[in-house]
Amino acid sequence: HVQLVESGGGSVQAGGSLRLSCAVSGATARNYLMGWFRQAPGKEREGVAGTLGSTTFYSDSVKGRFTISQDSAKNMVFLQMNNLKPDDTGVYYCAAGRPSMTHMPWDPSAVNFWGLGTQVTVS
């Protein structure tokens, strides 16, 4: 039974930082395309960052501000978010998908497992 559990969300002022964590159980994270999606109210869920092996990729809206990383020993994935903007507000979901691509856009239908999400609010 695969589970993805996010933590680290919260409320920050514009320009601030947050670090999201995703703990993976029931599967080996490095065998999947791992990453993060977000969903703002009234908007579709969008991929913002992904990692597969040594490759990382980002949506244009977060490139240069967000950094995705993975700790294989702990089976965890992280998202460091710097210089946050109000447009970054939303629910952030950890995702594990088929290791078949390493670029945006990342189609949500290609995700095999989802976390429950963590709220990020930037004011």
SSE order and pairing:
Elements: E1 3-7, E2 10-12, E3 18-25, E4 33-39, E5 46-52, E6 55-58, E7 66-71, E8 76-81, E9 90-97, E10 111-114, E11 118-122
Parallel strand pairs: 2-11
Antiparallel strand pairs: 1-3, 3-8, 4-5, 4-9, 5-6, 7-8, 9-10, 9-11
Low-confidence stretches: none
Terminal CA distance: 37 Å
Q: Shape from CA axes?
A: globular
Main beta sheet, described?
7 strands, mixed
The Rg value, from CA coordinates, equals 13 Å
Task: Output the structural class.
Answer: mainly beta
Estimated helix fraction: under 10%
Number of strands: 11
Taken in chain order, the helices and strands follow as EEEEEEEEEEE
Strand percent estimate: over 45%
The chain-level mean pLDDT equals 96
Short description:
This protein is mainly beta. A hairpin with a 2-residue loop joins strand 5 and strand 6 (55-58). The chain is built from no helices and 11 strands.
Description:
- This protein is mainly β and 123 residues long.
- It has no helices and eleven strands.
- The strands form two sheets. Strands 2, 4, 5, 6, 9, 10 and 11 form a seven-stranded mixed beta sheet that branches. A four-stranded antiparallel beta sheet has the order 1-3-8-7, with no helix packed on it.
- The radius of gyration is 13 Å and the shape is globular.
- It starts with a strand and ends with a strand.
